Amino acid sequence: MAGKIMMESGAEIYRVEDTMNRIADVATNKKGISFATPTGIFMSIEGERNLQLETIPTRTINLEKVSLVNDLSREFSSRNITLEELHSSLAQLEKDTRFFPVWWQVIAAGLVSGALMIIFGGAWFDFISTCLIGTIGFIIYYYAAEWLKIKFLAEFLSSFVIGLLAVIAVDSHLGINLDKIIIGSVMPLVPGVPITNAVRDLLAGHLLGGMARGMEALLTAGAIGIGIAVVFRFFA
Q1: Which of 78, 138, 211, 215 has the fewest CB atoms lying closer than 10 Å?
Q2: Closest Cα partner for 134 from 94, 89, 181?
Q3: Membrane spanning segments where (predicted)?
Q4: Residue finishing a domain among 50, 69, 95
Q5: Tens place of pLDDT for every residue, the chain, 236 residues?
Q6: DSSP 11
Q7: Same-domain status, 127 and 183
């Protein structure tokens, strides 16, 4: 359960395996044997025949949950809590969504878009336009992902709309730098954490998981890039 929560929340594979093994070591006084991938977790105990499998159907970024599972595993490893208390705490944490409200995410996406546009060398004149376009793009991504159930199509659709709105803003003299507006507006969609985790997993020796996560991040970046490229090809 701890590994499943961490993997669904965007933790690195080596962290997931280490946490599960530490819990197993303390609980059974035997060595835990685990194998984690982005889509499934295998767990067993040394000398035992039983093997447990947990599938990971969805993955998101929720580092607060990762931190809370780490805290619980440390408490259990220090024998400050019992195995039953650990299980009940993890069960409660698994049911807890612990996400900011959608309107908070939308506002944050808009502010991040505008701020990063300035950081990348954009003009203050483009700030409001970038915030609005980034907000609209994130809203489209959020609800398209809920409706289509295919993350890459949602990213393509949202980046296409972002590029189209940026072209309209510049043509209407509501913006100056088309490229800076687009760069800032797509930043909430960029898979920064998956790319970082893929590199960390590869460096830690988890080649299969690192390559899988790297491919997922590459597909996300490709979907975003293709959406912008279509706008440049036909509308810019």
Answers
A1: 78
A2: 181
A3: 102-121, 127-145, 152-170, 217-235
A4: 95
A5: 999 999 988 888 888 999 999 999 988 888 888 998 888 899 999 888 888 998 888 888 888 889 999 999 999 988 899 999 999 999 998 887 667 788 888 999 999 999 999 999 888 999 999 999 999 999 999 999 888 878 889 999 999 999 999 999 999 989 889 999 999 999 999 888 888 888 888 888 888 888 888 888 889 899 999 999 999 988 76
A6: -
A7: yes
Q: Are 32 and 43 in contact (CB under 8 A)?
A: yes
Domain boundary among 61, 95, 129: 95
Whether 138 and 175 share a structural domain = yes
Same domain flag for 202 and 185 = yes
Residue 227 burial (C-beta neighbours within 10 Å; 0-12, 13-18, 19+) = buried
Could you identify the residue written with the tokens 């980046």?
Answer: 159
Taking only Cα atoms into account, the Rg of the chain, rounded to an integer number of angstroms, comes to 21
Give which of 41, 24, 50, 76 is closest to 208, Cα–Cα: 41
Q: Which domain holds residue 219?
A: 102-234
Give the side-chain half-sphere CA count within 13 A for 208.
7
- The candidate with the shortest Cα–Cα distance to 189, out of 148, 157, 233, 164, is 157
Together in a domain, 83 and 113: no
Question: Can you give the pLDDT at residue 236?
Answer: 64
| Residue 53 tokens, joined | 């499998």
Counted domains in the chain: 2
